Structures are given as structure tokens and as C-alpha cells.
Amino acid sequence: MASEPSLAATRRLREHHRSEPVFVLGGAQTDFARNLTREGVALADLCAEATQAGLTAAGVEAAEVEVGHVGNFAGELFCGQGHLGGLLVEADPAFAGLPTMRHESACASGSMAVLAAMADIEAGRYDCALVLGVEMMRTTDALTVQQHLGAAAWVPRETEGVEYPWPALFGELGDEYERRYGLDPEHLAEIARINFANAKRNPNAQARDWHFEDADFARDSAKNPVIAGRIQRQDCSQVTDGAAVVVLAGERFATAWADRHGRSLDDTGRLAGWGHRTSRMALADKLADSQDDPYVAPFVRQTVVDAYARAGVADARDLDAVEVHDCFTTTEYLAIDHLGLTEPGESWRAIEDGSIGPEGAVPINPSGGLIGGGHPVGATGVRMVLDATKQVTGTAGDYQVDGARTVATLNLGGSATTSAAFVLTAGAA
Predict the structure, then answer these.
(1) Sign of the CA dihedral running 151, 155, 156, 159
(2) Strand 128-135 versus strand 242-249 pairing type
(3) Domains: count for the chain
(4) Helix 7-16 / helix 298-311 crossing angle, nearest 10 deg
(5) Cβ(158)–Cβ(280) under 8 Å?
(6) Would the pTM count as exceeding 0.90?
(7) If pLDDT is split at 50, 70 and 90, which confidence band does 9 have?
């Protein structure tokens, strides 16, 4: 069981983090509404397309990149392709000889790639890093997709005989909230409504052109069928193809880059804090271990607190927006109280009072999140960092949160087995 850190522990985190600042110079994502298999686009093509778009958006030449990190969950299963660091090198002739590596932590794979790139820069190994998150999932039928995704659970303990492992497991997460605190299904439906509505303002969101009626969200509607347990169709993120890229840099490189482009570091995104924890593999074991804790997932809470501490953020009230992992509505419900937007078990308050809406105190998923925006698994963590960077630099377009200067991300892998959080700000520390 995890507990809230002491003041001394918080100070140690901040002292330890006083190293090379890491700036986000920019990046890009592909259109998550595309079906790349139908287009005849191969995984290598997707890597190259996203990489070139990211370099252009960041104003960085390929030859200036000194290291590459790739986040990907299951290229082998969906595309028969591993060794994705090699595919990154194929994205530009100037990358020949570039040191690269691939990172896998289920749906948190992209965040692990960002963390590794940060570490490279903070350690002084390299001054400029490119991070690519990528996944092609629309390569097979829906049932096979679910079986592939089940590899992130504990096989076969949590998957044997289960057609849809993740709806079943995240339905059990909702059951645990119901048992401990009560859970109104209408609050889950409202989470879905908000994320789909937000997606309409995002030109790269998977669901931006989708249209819904009230019956699509009703718990007793044939238009919203049960997938597994308490999880219904509109509670789910969708199978998605896509990639996202961010370019990270240390202060020396970022200063020269800003001078070259006539920009200021005060208007450049910065990774101000991070958190990363790993819990037990099986959801049942996590829930059993947390019975005496007010938080259903204590290590998710610890991840968030670590990120806040490293960034000098007192609590969620210091945030202007959050990009969270809403693979299912129950996951976002967990994120709300674990971020500290409410007391444990009271996520419903932030839903009812409008706090998480686009005009609320701390909007959640202005991009549309995973439910509205799309969830190409290995790309999601990178996409979150990119969207948070857009928010703090005022470049998010139609889904910009007015005045956003401090934005957090929360990315989960498996049944919150891996947790990763970042706090993004603008300007030097």
C-alpha cells in the first residue's frame, strides 16, 4: 500500500530533479481517424510520416537529433514487426547511425519513451532527442485486436476464456468503486459525452465527425450494448491507427534553437515534473492490496504526487488542464480523484459541478482524450505530452484552454500496472 509522501520526501524529490531542464520544442501527430491498412500504409511509412511532420513542426533538422526513442506496445502482434528503433532510422537518411531504442509498457509505452529521452538529456548524454510513439491496430478483426491487447494483462490468469479482457477488467474497476463508494452509471456516461464533444474541436481526433443521440449513451439502450460487465460501447476508446512525435532538448540546444527561430524560451514548453510507478500485475491483487487505502489505486496516486512534487505543484488546483488516460470511462473516473480534483471516491462531484468540462476549473481531455481522440496504444503517452505542450504554449487551436500555463498528463499501462505522469509548463524553471 502506498501513502502520501512526507514533506521531507517531497523536498528530496524536488532537490533530486534540479538537473538539466528539458524543453519540448514541438511535435506532431497523425490524423487518428485514418485507417492506414485501407490506405496501404505500412508501419515504416507511418513512422517516417510522423517523424518528418514532427521535425518540421519543431523546426529541427534531422541531422540535429542525437538520439531517438520509440514507444510501441505490440508491433509484432499487429504488424509482424519488431525492432522499431531500426524503423525510426529509416525515417530520414540523416538518421544513419543514430542511437535508438524501443520502449514497451502496454498503453504507457509512449510515456516510457519520453521518460527515457528526458533521462538522456538530464544526464548530459545528448542535447536533442526525438520521441516517436506509434501503433497500427486496424490490421485485423475486432476480436483478434482484443486478444492482442490482452497481452498487457497477466496471461493466462486474467485472459483465459475471456473474449474482451480489458472491458472486463475495467468493468471490475468500476465494480470496486461501486462497492467502496457507490457509482452512478450516469456519471460514466457524462464522461463519454464530454470527451466526444471535446473531440469535435480537434482536427486530428478520431471521433471529430461522429454524431450521437441521447440513446447512444443510455444505459438501457440497444444503441449502447454491453461489451463486458458494466462496460458498454460508449464507455470504450476505439481501435486506432496513429503516431505522435515530440522533440526534446536541453537548455543549451533550446537556447540556440530559440535564437535561430526568433523565439523565447518563455514561450516554449518544458517538462517540469514526472512520476513513474509500477504496481502488481493482476487487477485483483492491486485491489486486494488497496483495501485499507482511501485510493483504489494507491500507486497511481503516488505517481501523480511525485510529478506534482518535482514540478513544484502544490495540488490539482494549480493545474489549468489535464490529459488523462480514459481507455474506458471507469479509468477517467479513477483519474479524477487520484489527481486530487476531489477527495477519494468523490469523482462524481467534479462531473456534476462541471469542473472537468471545457469551461471548468480543470478541464480534462480538451483534445477529446482516448475516447474521443483515439488510442493508438504506443502513441498515446507521446500524444498527451504533445497536447499538453500545445496548451501551455497557446497553440492548441480550437481546443485551447484559455490561459493554460500548467498542464498535467496521466498515462496508464495495463490495469494501472504502469503509471506515468508529467507536468508541462512554459519557460525556464
Answers:
(1) negative
(2) antiparallel
(3) 1
(4) 60
(5) no
(6) yes
(7) low
Q: Could you report the per-residue pLDDT of 56-98, keeping only the tens digit for each?
A: 999 999 999 999 999 999 999 999 999 999 999 999 999 999 9
Q: Is residue 149 part of a domain?
A: no
- Between CA 292 and CA 402 the distance in angstroms is 40
pLDDT tens per residue, range 260-293:
999 999 999 999 999 999 999 999 999 999 999 9
Range of the domain at 94: 23-140+240-256
| Cα Rg, the chain, nearest whole Å | 20
> What are 127's three cell numbers?
542535447
Please list, in sequence order, all residues whose beta carbon lies within 8 angstroms of the beta carbon of residue 283, skipping any fewer than 6 positions away: 158, 169, 172, 173, 415, 416
Residues 6+ apart with CB under 8 A from 35: 138, 241
The Cα–Cα gap between 241 and 244 comes to: 11
Return the CATH number at 36: 3.40.47.10
Provide the greatest CA pair distance for the chain: 59
Q: Could you give the CA distance from residue 323 to residue 335 in angstroms, rounded to a whole number?
A: 10
